[in-house]
Amino acid sequence: MDVLQAGIGEFTVEDPDDLRAFMRTEKRREMVDKVMPEAEAVRRYVKDGDYVSFDFSSFTRGPASLVREIIRQRRQNLWFAAKFTLMESTLLAEGGCLRGIDVGFLGLGSLIGKAVEEGRIKVTEWTNGTLTLRHLAGAMGVPFLPTRNLLATDTLTYSGAKVVQDPFTRRPIALVSAVNPDVGLVHVHQCDIYGNARCFGPGVSPLETAMASKRTIISTEQIITTDDIRKEPAKTTIPYYLVDAVVYAPFGCLPGGAQGVYEMDTEHFLEYMAASGDAQKMAAYLGKYVYSVASHEEFLAKRVGVEKLLDLKRQATITEGYH
Amino acid sequence: MDVLQAGIGEFTVEDPDDLRAFMRTEKRREMVDKVMPEAEAVRRYVKDGDYVSFDFSSFTRGPASLVREIIRQRRQNLWFAAKFTLMESTLLAEGGCLRGIDVGFLGLGSLIGKAVEEGRIKVTEWTNGTLTLRHLAGAMGVPFLPTRNLLATDTLTYSGAKVVQDPFTRRPIALVSAVNPDVGLVHVHQCDIYGNARCFGPGVSPLETAMASKRTIISTEQIITTDDIRKEPAKTTIPYYLVDAVVYAPFGCLPGGAQGVYEMDTEHFLEYMAASGDAQKMAAYLGKYVYSVASHEEFLAKRVGVEKLLDLKRQATITEGYH
Amino acid sequence: MIQSDFTESEFMICQCARLIEDGKIVFIGYGLPQIAAILAQRLHAPRMVQVYEFGAVGSLPETPFVRFTMGGPRNCYRALAWTNMNTIFAQAQLGMVDLGVLGATQIDQFGNLNSTMLGADYTHPEKRFPGSGGANEVMTQCWRTLIVIRHERRRFVKQVDFLTSPGYLDGTPGARERAGLPRDTGPWRVATSKALYGFDDHTRQMVLLGVLRGLSVDEVVKEMEFTALVKEKVEELEPPTPEELHILREEIDPARAIIGKTARD
Amino acid sequence: MIQSDFTESEFMICQCARLIEDGKIVFIGYGLPQIAAILAQRLHAPRMVQVYEFGAVGSLPETPFVRFTMGGPRNCYRALAWTNMNTIFAQAQLGMVDLGVLGATQIDQFGNLNSTMLGADYTHPEKRFPGSGGANEVMTQCWRTLIVIRHERRRFVKQVDFLTSPGYLDGTPGARERAGLPRDTGPWRVATSKALYGFDDHTRQMVLLGVLRGLSVDEVVKEMEFTALVKEKVEELEPPTPEELHILREEIDPARAIIGKTARD
User: Fold this and answer.
1) A142 DSSP 8-state letter
2) CA nearest C143 in B: which residue?
3) Is the backbone peptide bond immediately before A108 cis, with ω within 30 degrees of 0?
4) pTM for the full model?
5) Looking at this predicted complex, what is its ipTM?
6) Closest chain A C-alpha to D27 CA, distance in angstroms
7) Nearest Cα residue to A57 out of A87, A101, A94, A102
8) What distance in Å separates the CA atoms of residue C221 and residue C205, rounded to the nearest whole number?
């Protein structure tokens, strides 16, 4: 099973035994109250230089309030897993938080492209699917998973994948390296104080992200009792022992939506789009929505307002299946 | 990434492109009514020499009525995936249906062991976990998946796994070959006439089994409308396009139970256990419960009876979460 | 001129919709393909099963279409199943998805797509684009891929600067199979704002199959950097029909956010 | 003799239960370990989280225990999550499971388990057993493994006829790590019907840690084919307490289907 081709993109693979040792000592087995303010969660668990992953989308069930808090705390040299994200790469990059990005999808607007063109942000090429598969590998505690994607492309050349001859069929196949983010950010619909969490609707990879990440911060629309969790075990997307911090963040996906709870804020996205090609405008955007407010709560009070919140809730008329 | 060790157990790997070609031409994309009698489903989709897989357990949500129909139709030279099964290997072997077994767990009683001792049944050694992982590989359309299980054991020596040096960490790791059963048998709680199916409660691998199998026969406790399916898309375990036949089989798990619907029949298991060490007794058992009844419906009417059915339903007092 | 009755986007969407068969499993990319899929479902393909990379299967999107939406409730409405990305791409890899529908930035004569960067040197891109997203998976795994792209010379190049998603590679017979890509897959049609292309079974070069009514073959092919093959009998492509335009403008995108406005509006 | 107050199974179960720490994630095997886990949860380990290979996490099994049950509602009652086999074994492989509890057919001096076959020739087994089930995964992935086994000479062998699930292999330092097995894992305790064993940190040989009150070391070690190391101070193991027996006999297994009956019953 010789290596026929090896991508030259920047990436690291965690030693599976070092990862296990971390999981053994750092992941609490006892059910302890993990509810804390966003500021404390980010202060405790997001360090300069960390690899940060995100689930699910900028438009839907994304941990937007946590991303804003990371920018507010001015973390630096982060590497970001841009799988199915649209605004976050730009916000983190223009906020000065990023060293590099696993692409995924490099959204949205021309600023982020400019940052790459000028070499201010490094990128490693992947795809939405293989980046998500790398999270599954990380979640399984194996160093790689095989896929037929990436083959024969420049995407593979600038990725961290390796092409090998499959020992069973003798055919070429790509192996993508596991990713074990230092921090995974997942917004959920409901969870208890220990972190037993429920995501409703389709999603990219909430469980894989929580399993693969060394630290998992979840923000939640609602905190419910563990008794309720135990009455519907099939609804538990993420079990408590994978979770390090629980942040109570109603409307935490804004400007994105949370299915069945509130719709996304299209006006806000248009405002973002208008700023996404101009550094000054983006600085003003970040000033307005991130730096000039102390918290998500203040963001809601001063930058969104009750009227908009009620309107976005009103727009969430489709609730079927989101419970 | 040289092969350091290769198991010598009997196994085959499907060419992923041949598998794709089969899925393209043989799996109906249109939503067509697939409801048919168990006899027709087995006649159509289970052939002599097939590899047959099963989900989930002999005690819980197992497709027992379909297994009995396979024995009743006297299929031969089958290879059986004994993952988390207890009676089925014995019933199929004593019914003269089996050539070999992927173990898993070789249950239950001394007869099946005797069949292996005397060389009447071939076995390839796996484990519950790696046999289930092989179904995931088959479900992903890749020829193998990596695992740290099996390493350093005689189980690996007599399996089809290969040990290679992982090109990312340079450590030894096991690769287990994908399995794509000719037929997968899954009992479900509810489905529509097209095969959109729901399994409630924990399970071994209903989706992986349905995805990996070239033909999937589901038996169901209840047939519901597609409109109901569309109201709760999160509850769909198996989408219709993976399903070839839908068999209406209430109490189809007996003597096992279906969570929230009826409890398992412990008396029946004791009767099975009493026969499981003696060929004559097992022949009598098969005669009583399989050959002497024409169908599952007749099995229920003549071998179980209304009184027992009502009692087993009454015993299903725990319904939380099974919906 | 006829164009003023409808926008380029409207024609691209209608062409794309017309090419989506009923009763198939179709992988829908972000943007125009979403609109095209809804249009097809409203017209001739009510039983087509839409699948999305975030895991929705068989949804019946609500209209009007809300800009930006993809994983949201309106787009996932009444789905048959809500899964996740690893599951849906696994099913595509298994060969369960008949057609993929993708937008693209740049395409070459063999149907290779570039959505990553422009320039000769990857380390110093002249222009950086978003990258693959899920396009690489779709072009690798779906049995057929339908590409929707605006017909501009700079988008139709002899060779892509960066091969993001695999077409027929260098066009040699069996090139995809040799690389380990699934057998018998690849780009199938290219629907543009002016024309429709396929690919030659042998040379794998792009072939002009049809042009929008009112346009000449020359008007179309001059808008490409490479010389496409031209089918003996080039089909005349019907502009958007009143019915198509009605559904697009009244039901799907009354705000004209995606389909745009004509000179007349 | 004291044995008549309780059955061998009852003592094995009580020993096993006493070794299950509170507040840990514990992988529970089929049979006796299930009973032991329930007993531990009723006594000193209410916050222990049971996980099962079919995917139940943190269930609070209902009593009385129903024979044969594993994936059924009584055993999965009030779980924190219902997953599946690939997910739960992935979490074990990630290092999330602290302790695995297993029954076994045959064990050797280095804690290797055989549940596959007896005989010198695999192709002609003298006796065929069920095989690994999930035992191989549990012994490979859990940080510690606790084995419950009846104390019979034929079960304690110098070398297992077939190595189904990995103990310390040949006992050489780093043998598991060299083979690619997870670092710092392996068998931890062996709880039998007569005694309790651990493993020497250096030689990895089985070490007698304690014997059931009323039994001598000799009475115990003569029931093994190999010579176990003996701890300087061998602990006296308390028989099942009235409280343990009450819970076992009144709450968990009133039918005595698993715990069995004593001579007195």
Assistant:
1) -
2) B24
3) yes
4) 0.98
5) 0.97
6) 13
7) A87
8) 14
Dump pLDDT digits (tens) for B99-132. 999 999 998 899 999 999 999 999 999 999 999 9
Contacts of C129 (CB under 8 A, 6+ apart): A106, A113, C105, C114, C115, C116, C117, C118
Q: How many residues does chain D have?
A: 265
DSSP B240: G
Q: Which two tokens mark B244?
A: 């070839």
The catalytic residues of C are: 53
Cα(A163)–Cα(A4) distance, integer angstroms: 5
- Residue with structure tokens 């007698």? D208
Helix, strand, coil fractions of chain D, as percent rounded to 5: 25, 25, 50
**Whole-number average pLDDT of chain C:** 95
Q: Any idea what the Cα angle at residue B148 is, between residues B144 and B151, rounded to 5°?
A: 100
CA distance A28 to A215: 11
Q: Which residue has the tokens 């695992």?
A: B147
D265 pLDDT above the threshold of 90: no
Inter-chain CB proximity A320 and C128 less than 8 Å: no
pLDDT of A15: 96
HSE, CB side, 13 Å, CA atoms: give it for residue B262.
Answer: 22
- For B158-192, b where at least 16 C-beta lie within 10 A, e where not — what string? bbbbbbbbbbbbebbbbbbbbbbbbbbbbbbbbbb
Among D47, D67, D153, D143, CA closest to D101? D143
Nearest CA in chain D to A233: D81
Residues 6+ apart with CB under 8 A from C216: none
Checking phi first, is residue A104 left (phi over 0); if not, alpha (psi -120 to 50) or beta?
left
How would you classify residue A99: left for phi > 0, otherwise alpha for psi between -120 and 50, otherwise beta?
alpha
Residues 6+ apart with CB under 8 A from A297: none
H or E element, residue A315: helix A305-315
* Chain D: closest CA distance from residue A53 (Å): 18
- Helix extents (H) in chain C: 8-18, 32-42, 85-93, 135-141, 175-178, 217-221, 242-246
The label of the residue with tokens 């002899």 reads C158
Cα A195 to Cα A187: distance, rounded to the nearest angstrom: 11
For A:89-148, CB contacts with D below 8 A are 139-142
Contact C48, C37 (CB under 8 A): yes
Sign of torsion over alpha carbons D142, D146, D147, D153: positive
